[in-house]
């Protein structure tokens, strides 16, 4: 009888474990027939324009005008994920990271919901989305870790958390050197037998499958991603680098730029650590100037092909920026 009870208990635990694992790996399920865009608008001098309304915008997909179904002004709150790289390469300046992150949360709107996630070998949710700044500040203080950089796993985890934030506007601010450990191993394998004079051209950063998977998840929700690129990942700052090292670092830095461009964000390169707080504040200011629009594409085919997005306003002297497009999956 005792053996039967033990067996039953084991089966319950095993089933629960499998169920939990499956839930953690569930794909993000978003209505992909709706396209969501966060749009920044500036004048010819680069000054943000924040007083437009929905009728001031025209959205085109592959050159075909789309009907805007929803519009949110620049004052609408965000759900924001702050992703902090706690891998070994950041051990020497954790205090600077803390001070800079504090400056970022101070610059956000009081109605913005913030989640803090740290990543290194593992990805840890330090606090779930909240408007209460006290747990957020505490999360920044206790963020700690070392080891490898699992950047794309952390981005995917952040996107999954954001998928529970309903129709709110969404953004990720990720502080990292960009050198994802797993992706870098893929790049190493690719370069193993390449002649030295061809190393710089051998890697096409955009064709990495891990990157494209993350971008597809971001497309599904219209999440804007802002990478803050640490100087430890800058190939120009390597001490006596080999062509092999330069190729690896250039590919990682290029992928951060691709993430920003594809999602409508901007990549900010941190040249000196003391700039970090200022750049965090700049990102917070950029977010406060974004409009959000949604539309249902007239092209209903889900054929996996690229759909190019362009925007115009009723004032032709204004300059608009958003994500470049998406794959219709």
Give an account of the 3D structure.
By secondary structure, the protein is α/β, with parallel strands linked by helices. It folds into two domains: 78 residues, no CATH class; 208 residues, Rossmann fold. Helix content is 36%, strand content 24%. The protein is built from nine helices and 14 strands. The strands form three sheets. A six-stranded mixed β-sheet has the order 7-6-5-8-9-10, sandwiched between helices. The chain has a four-stranded antiparallel β-sheet with strand order 4-11-1-13, with helices on one face. Strand 2 and strand 3 form a beta hairpin. It is globular, with a radius of gyration of 21 Å.
Task: Tell me briefly what this model is.
The protein has 329 residues and is an alpha/beta fold. It is built from nine helices and 14 strands. It folds into two domains: 35-73 and 289-327, no CATH class; 78-285, Rossmann fold, CATH 3.40.50.410.
What would you give as the CATH superfamily of the largest domain?
von Willebrand factor, type A domain
For this structure, the CATH topology of the largest domain is: Rossmann fold
- The whole-number mean of residue pLDDT values reads 89
Low-confidence stretches: 1-31
For the record, the count of structural domains works out to 2
Estimate what percentage of residues fall within beta strands: 15-25%
Main-sheet strand order equals 7-6-5-8-9-10
By secondary-structure content and strand pairing, the structural class works out as alpha/beta
How do the SSEs run, as a string of H and E? Answer: HEEEEEHEEHHEHHHEHEHEEEE
């Amino acid at each position: 009888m005792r053996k039967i009870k033990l067996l039953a208990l084991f089966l319950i635990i095993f089933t629960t474990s499998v169920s939990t694992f499956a839930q953690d790996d569930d794909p993000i399920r978003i209505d992909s027939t709706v396209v969501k865009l966060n749009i920044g608008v500036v004048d010819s001098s680069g000054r943000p324009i924040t007083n437009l309304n929905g009728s001031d915008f025209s959205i085109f997909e592959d050159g075909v005008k789309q009907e805007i179904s929803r519009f949110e002004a620049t004052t609408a709150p965000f759900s924001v994920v702050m992703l902090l790289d706690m891998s070994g390469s950041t051990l020497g300046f954790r205090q600077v990271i803390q001070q800079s992150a504090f400056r970022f949360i101070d610059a956000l709107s009081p109605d913005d919901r913030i989640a803090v996630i740290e990543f290194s070998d593992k990805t840890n949710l330090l606090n779930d989305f909240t408007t209460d700044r006290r747990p957020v500040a505490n999360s920044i203080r206790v963020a700690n870790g070392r080891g490898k950089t699992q950047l794309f796993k952390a981005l995917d985890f952040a996107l999954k958390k954001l998928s529970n934030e309903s129709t709110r506007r969404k953004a990720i601010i990720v502080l990292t050197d960009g050198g994802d450990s797993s992706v870098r191993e893929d790049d190493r394998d690719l370069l193993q037998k390449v002649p030295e004079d061809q190393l710089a051209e051998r890697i096409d950063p955009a064709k990495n499958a891990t990157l494209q998977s993350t971008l597809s998840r971001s497309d599904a929700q219209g999440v804007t991603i802002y990478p803050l690129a640490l100087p430890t990942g800058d190939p120009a700052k390597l001490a006596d680098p080999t062509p092999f090292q330069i190729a690896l670092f250039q590919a990682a830095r290029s992928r951060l730029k691709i993430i920003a461009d594809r999602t409508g964000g901007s990549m900010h390169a941190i040249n000196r650590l003391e700039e970090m707080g200022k750049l965090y504040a700049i990102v917070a200011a950029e977010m406060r100037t974004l409009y959000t629009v949604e539309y249902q594409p007239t092209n209903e085919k889900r054929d996996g092909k690229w759909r190019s997005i362009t925007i115009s306003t009723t004032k032709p002297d204004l300059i608009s920026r958003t994500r470049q497009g998406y794959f219709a999956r």
